[in-house]
Write a structure and sequence with these properties.
- The protein is an alpha+beta fold and 436 residues long.
- Helices cover 36% and strands 20% of the residues.
- The protein has 15 helices and 16 strands.
- It has helices spanning 25-44, 59-62, 70-75, 94-103, 148-164, 180-195, 203-211, 225-229, 240-255, 304-307, 323-328, 352-367, 381-391, 401-406, 427-435, and strands spanning 48-49, 55-57, 78-80, 86-89, 113-122, 134-143, 171-176, 260-262, 274-281, 294-300, 316-322, 345-349, 372-374, 395-399, 408-413, 419-423.
- The strands form three sheets. Strands 1-5-6-11-10-9-7-8 form an eight-stranded mixed beta sheet.
- Helix 5 runs parallel beside helix 9 (240-255).
- The longest helix has 20 residues, at 25-44.
- The radius of gyration is 28 Å and the shape is elongated.
């Protein structure tokens, strides 16, 4: 009899929420392998790790973005705490990194501060290929310098990371949005141009035109594409200093042999960008008749710090790489993480006395840095050998009743079934010699 007020048993198991998924087994190792390789490259270039909370105050994201931005308008997961605070699941990594820079007193460190991070982010988007509501990004930020060489460094590292994981010939698209002075002239010209075509653009672009005009260039609606292609170009309105900055940036890319092209409609999806913006496109993930999917992108955000409480601007530049999309690419080469080792031995125990000693033997192997697999719940020799064979483990360590009494183990080679009896204290040295 069911208890009143309780749910009856479900007929089907619960699935992950829409747009999220479990990452299990080899897929987890692939994600971990990518994160390790990207972090290794970042460290060699002088970047240090940072981790920000998954939950942030909502204003970390809304302060630097207009209400017309998709993240603020319809994509951010927000909640109100019992104490009345408004929090949000982080939809991107740049604003939290800048918040941490300001609240952590990093202005007192030698500038610029260069950080990298990896983790999950959340947006209430329509789930589709390469786009999830819970997604993973690897990010790089250079906080505290206006120099164009850092813009180029960020692009260089992005391309290098992609190359190290097998992505071939990524296309880098670049543009400059100018500074807050020269961008105003462009914003007025763009708004004026679009108002002449207001009857022919989508409803979303009409809304963007009111609050965030540059965002109309981010529209992928086929109805708006012809109008966008004839729109005024931001680089035509750059001031002398912004032109110099953009020219230097491209000269650095040329010097590093990075292939790029200017995309005059590239604005990225966030309001806080200024001057340099870029995206990295892969032909591998581009399906006929659909917009190209970006593997990563970023740009300069010189004015974001003021929106987060700084009394002065903190010129900065950064990038984020979409790890889910990178791993989907047909040219991606999975990397096995170094921190997670493949088992080199399969430990077999026979009888209760051997079971009692099994954790002691496992600890001996751990201290010798020898990863193992086992099936401690099994008792049969043939069953445990069968599991070892399925796993493709090259050697087995067998501990039976006799071995417990003698203080030994048997080491068996799975390939030819040859075996040696080894005293337990000498096992680590024997195995190290065996691996040579």
């Amino acid at each position: 009899m069911a208890i009143k007020g309780t749910r009856s048993s479900r007929k089907e198991p619960l699935l992950p929420p829409k747009g999220t998924r479990d990452i299990i087994g080899d897929e987890y190792l692939t994600y971990q392998g990518f994160a390790e390789k990207a972090a290794e490259i970042a460290i060699y270039y002088g970047f240090k790790p940072i981790e920000t909370p998954i939950l942030e105050h909502e204003e970390v994201f809304t302060s630097g973005l207009s209400a017309a931005t998709d993240i603020v308008g319809k994509e951010m997961y927000s909640l109100r705490t019992k104490g009345g605070d408004r929090l949000a699941l982080r939809p991107e990594g740049t604003a939290p990194a800048m918040r941490a820079y300001l609240s952590g007193g990093m202005q007192a460190l030698p500038q610029p501060v260069m950080v990298y991070y990896y983790g999950p982010y959340f947006r209430h988007d329509s789930p589709q290929r390469g786009r999830y509501r819970e997604f993973r990004q690897f990010g790089l930020e250079v906080i505290g310098s206006p120099k164009s060489i850092y813009d180029a460094l960020i692009v260089c590292l992005s391309v290098t990371i992609l190359g190290e994981v097998g992505i071939k010939n990524p296309c880098v698209e670049v543009n400059s949005l100018g500074c807050k002075e020269c961008r105003e002239g462009y914003r007025r010209e763009l708004s004026s141009y679009y108002r002449k075509h207001v009857k022919n653009i989508c409803v979303e672009c009409r809304e963007r035109l009111k609050g965030s005009p540059l965002r109309v260039l981010d529209c992928k609606n086929p109805k708006c594409v012809p109008i966008k292609e004839r729109a005024p170009e931001s680089i035509a309105y750059l001031c002398a200093e912004c032109k110099k900055h953009f020219k230097e940036f491209m000269e650095y890319l040329d010097e590093m042999g990075i292939t790029y092209r200017i995309n005059s409609t590239l604005v990225r999806g966030l309001d806080y960008y200024s001057r340099t913006v870029f995206e990295i496109i892969s032909a591998d993930l581009t399906e006929e008749g659909t917009p190209a999917l970006a593997l990563g992108g970023g740009g300069r955000y010189d004015y974001l710090a003021r929106h987060l409480g700084s009394r002065k601007d903190v010129p900065s530049v950064g990038t984020s790489l979409g790890v889910d999309r990178i791993l989907l690419s047909p040219s991606h080469t999975p990397l096995h993480p170094r921190i997670i080792k493949k088992p080199e031995m399969f430990f077999i125990q026979l009888g209760f006395d051997a079971k009692l000693q099994s954790l002691r033997v496992t600890e001996v192997l751990r201290k010798a840095h020898i990863p193992i697999a086992h099936s401690l719940g099994k008792d049969s020799l043939s069953t445990q050998l069968g599991i070892a064979e399925k796993m493709g483990v090259p050697y087995c360590i067998i501990l039976g009743q006799k071995e417990v009494i003698d203080g030994t183990v048997i080491v068996r080679a799975m390939a030819n079934h040859s075996q040696d009896t080894v005293k337990l204290p000498k096992l680590p040295e024997y195995l190290k010699h065996l691996k040579r």
